[in-house]
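Quick log. Single chain, no ligands specified.
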Amino acid sequence: RNARSHRGCDALAQVAPASTELLQMAAERGHNLGSITAALLRLLNQYGAPSRQAAILEAIERKVPHPNAVRLALERAR
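-> predicted structure:
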């Protein structure tokens, strides 16, 4: 069961390395990492990896470790 939970994090780290920092920031703030990982994986299916990496970096820069911040950055870039 624990191994399955890391599968999503590993997939995110491969295509968007900044996602590990985003998840770490979210964990420090007590956010639900499972739901954040799932939301970021959904964004993975909707947007390309390069644009998602830039959006994650923008969310980190703004200190907002939440998928909605990533989604908004992706929409602005679109």
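The mean pLDDT is 85.
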